[in-house]
Write a structure and sequence with these properties.
Blueprint: E1 5-6, E2 14-15, H1 18-25, E3 27-29, E4 34-42, E5 45-52, E6 61-62, E7 68-74, E8 76-83, E9 92-97, E10 101-104, E11 108-114, E12 120-126, E13 136-137
Antiparallel strand pairs: 1-2, 3-4, 4-5, 5-12, 6-13, 7-10, 7-12, 8-9, 8-11
């Protein structure tokens, strides 16, 4: 059930069901290869929900400005990171699973990989231009 509640008197409250938005409104982001739906937009922040199918890996990319904050809603996988000015050989991998929260600093290449048997579902917050003008895709690197 999609739930939106807004306090019409001052517009200070909006409640949405992120998982329902993922199901109903997600659009495949062809740059990184996963469905993404916008959840909320606030001053300086955009909130999105995304899903990686089992065995799926997103295209490695980084952002020049602003942190990106993730919360794993379901599933398990790996987050691969390395400095944007270094090769993927400098990659560090960390396991993430439901309830994990992590942040990615600017100029950090990141690549999520679903290593589980169920979808890896993520809620993430970033600068509004992170999915457009401030996303730099780097040479494909097969996660392993």
């Amino acid at each position: 059930m999609h739930m939106t509640i807004t306090d019409e008197s001052d517009n200070r409250l909006r409640i949405v069901n992120a998982l329902q938005l993922l199901h109903d409104q997600a659009v495949k982001d062809s740059t990184v290869g996963i469905p993404i739906a916008k959840v909320l937009e606030t001053s300086g922040w955009s909130w999105h929900v995304a899903e990686l199918a089992p065995a799926q890996t997103i295209a490695p990319h980084y952002h020049r400005h602003g942190d990106e904050i993730y919360f794993v809603l379901a599933g398990a996988g790996l987050i691969h990171t390395w400095p944007a000015d270094e090769s993927p050989a400098a990659r560090h991998s960390q396991r993430v699973e439901a309830a994990a929260t992590f942040s990615i600093a600017p100029q950090t290449v990141h690549q999520l990989e679903n290593t589980g048997t169920t979808p890896l579902v993520l809620l993430f917050a970033c600068s509004p231009d992170h999915l457009t003008a401030d996303r730099v895709v780097v040479a494909a690197h097969k996660a392993s």
